[in-house]
Design goal:
By secondary structure, the chain is α/β, with parallel strands linked by helices. It has helices at residues 10-23, 41-54, 73-77, 109-113, 157-166, 175-178, 181-193, 210-223, 278-285, 293-299, 320-331, 334-345; strands spanning 2-5, 33-39, 60-68, 80-87, 95-102, 123-126, 146-149, 172-174, 198-205, 227-231, 237-244, 247-252, 258-262, 269-272, 311-312. The strands form 2 sheets. The chain has an 8-stranded mixed β-sheet, sandwiched between helices. Strands 14-13-12-11-9-10-15 form a 7-stranded mixed β-sheet, covered by helices on one side. Strand 7 (146-149), helix 5 and strand 8 (172-174) form a beta-alpha-beta unit. Helix 8 (210-223) packs across helix 10 (293-299).
Length: 346
């Protein structure tokens, strides 16, 4: 069921939602969260389709916020809200509200969205494109417990990844991180099967692919070893190689679908590592609404070394004794240091 509302208000949209539920015979609200999608007309269809598919696992009220840019100065001064309400089979397993904000109202989207949020339910905001530099301090992002971006859609993905690290707040996450969940699970399982100290690692994939960089930083952060980033023709992430004292572990996915896991003294095994749709990635992120500390640690690690063909090297952790020695040396007078330096020169 679809209801079109022109030059409307948030109150009238709520009334339309209630009337629509009664008309289809489902007056009760059985949704578990509110998903706010901030997008444009070009990407609205794909975003709403992915959110609708994800709602089969997470019944939710989906609110799409589309800011319409007015061409003339007079039109930009006028504020108008148009809405489309979808309930029933047209909205997956929940409800969908498409908001089109015109003129000055586009700068105050939070005031329109706030009355439409489900009471006592978590709020998730997703930017499929053009995410703000600081999602947590964005007017709409401030309403949410969870904020989802996608650095892969940025014009300069690696620069965008560095911005995500600088402005990270608990509750932030990125679909570039979600894409490597099967890789992280498979690599962890391989080390469980063949426990050995990892000496070095290599991550191979396309250039300007934030998922490859995140996987390299995750390995360096967790294993504390040098991780080399090499380039391939793709698609996406193609291989990970971990050198251990018991041999080499290789996870190779050349075709973007089926991967091969190779370990010392074991036969090669085929494992499924297909590239997932956006709806699957979104559904995974909606399963957890608490801060992802693993993502936070990975995205903040070695961001300054994000360059094609570079190497991400783990920073050594200084002991308390090392820190104390450096502090004492820094406080020592220059006169005391001079004799030692002169003796050294002799």
């Amino acid at each position: 069921m679809k209801i079109d509302l022109t030059e409307t208000t948030s109150s009238k949209i709520n009334q339309a939602l209630v009337s629509a539920r009664r008309a289809i015979g489902t007056p009760a609200i059985g949704m578990v969260l509110t998903l706010v999608i901030v997008t444009d007309e070009e990407n609205a269809y794909d975003a709403l389709k992915s959110a609708g598919d994800a709602s089969r696992e997470h019944p939710s009220r989906i609110i799409a916020v589309i800011k319409r840019v007015s061409r003339s100065p007079r039109a930009r001064r006028d504020a108008r809200l148009d809405a489309e309400v979808r309930v029933g089979s047209d909205a997956g397993t929940g409800e969908t509200v498409v908001l089109r904000l015109h003129g000055e109202l586009a700068n105050h989207a939070q005031s329109v969205v706030l009355p439409l949020l489900l009471p006592d339910a978590p709020v998730v905001v997703w930017w499929p494109e053009d995410a703000p530099a600081d999602p947590a301090n964005d007017p709409l992002g401030a309403l949410a417990q969870r904020r989802i971006t996608d650095t892969y859609s940025a014009e300069l993905p690696l620069d965008e990844l560095a911005v995500r690290a600088e402005t990270y707040s608990p509750g932030d996450t990125d679909l570039a991180w979600t894409r490597i969940t099967p890789w992280r699970s498979m690599l962890a399982a391989a080390l469980d099967q063949q426990p050995a100290e990892v000496i070095a690692a290599t991550v191979e994939g396309e250039s300007d692919n934030p998922s490859c960089e995140l996987l390299a930083m995750w390995l360096a952060d967790r294993l504390g070893v040098p991780v080399e980033r090499t380039l391939s023709q793709g698609p996406g992430l193609t291989a990970v190689r971990m050198e251990t004292k018991n041999g080499v572990i290789v996870l190779d996915r050349a075709d973007g679908g089926l991967a091969t896991l190779s370990m010392q003294n074991q036969p090669d095994r085929a494992v499924a590592l297909k590239r997932r749709d956006t709806s699957e990635l979104l559904a995974e992120e909606l399963r957890r609404l608490d801060p992802d500390n693993t993502y936070a640690s990975a995205v903040k690690f070695g961001v300054d070394k994000l360059h094609a063909g570079g190497e991400v090297t783990a920073k050594p952790v200084d002991s308390a004794a090392d820190k104390a020695d450096r502090a004492a040396e820094a406080k020592a007078p220059a006169a005391k240091k001079a004799p030692a330096k002169k003796a050294a020169s002799k």
